[in-house]
Amino acid sequence: MDCALLLLSLWALTRAVSPQFSGRTCPWPLPPSDNSVDRLLSPTHSFSALLEVRCKPGFTLPNGLDATIRRCQGDRQWSGDEPICADVYCQPPPEVEQGYVVAVQKTEYEVGFDIHFLCKKNFLLDGPQKITCQLNGSWSASPPHCRARCLIPAERSRVLIGGVKRWPFDVTDAMVPHGENVTFFCKHPRKQCSFTTTQTCFDGKLQPPSCYLEPTWLQYKLFPHRLVSEIEACEPGDVE
């Protein structure tokens, strides 16, 4: 049995057990409201009839619901207090660490209000740059994160960044932004050749692969052409 059929059954049952009120009616139609819509759920507006009051989009009842049911009583009045649909508001979003909220600071925000986010210098925005207060009182998305740069964990070996082979000290601050891929050169355990492994910077954390060994200062100074990033690449079949 669906909801509408159940309500009609309850209406008919109430009328059957209360014949003394069967001729009484409640006001209908009701005066129009800017914030809500009235809908009669029963065939007539007589005793025990059911009336739905539903808030329009962007409005809500004090209990947080968007609709309520009223019943026509024996005193010819609809049950309960007159429903009041008030404006929906969104609560301030959480603060973004290492970021800024670009909006007027308020205790609550009206539907349709946009909040923009920016990150501090050297931090990368990860997530939506803008969120909007929705009709249901929630934000269109969770606030973003401001992700930190990563220090390249290599000093005496070149790495690949954006497909370009570079010394870490030639990169600004020897750091890469969040989400950047860094490819390291690893030496084959049995052959004089190298293979590559890629790691990704995530919010300030970038670990070298387990196969990477940092060349010593003597290797770097005395045998630069033998550094792992400078020797011949292994054949595809050599890498397990």
Automatic annotation (TrEMBL):
It holds the Pfam family Sushi_2. One of its GO terms (cellular component) is extracellular region. It is found in: Secreted. It comes from the Eukaryota. GO terms for molecular function: heparin binding. Keywords: Disulfide bond, Glycoprotein, Heparin-binding, Repeat, Secreted, Signal, Sushi. Its main location: secreted. PROSITE patterns: SUSHI. Residues 1-16 form the signal peptide. Disulfide bonds join C90-C133, C119-C146. Residues 24-87, 88-148 form the Sushi domain. Binds to various kinds of negatively charged substances such as heparin, phospholipids, and dextran sulfate. May prevent activation of the intrinsic blood coagulation cascade by binding to phospholipids on the surface of damaged cells. This is Beta-2-glycoprotein 1. It comes from Channa argus.
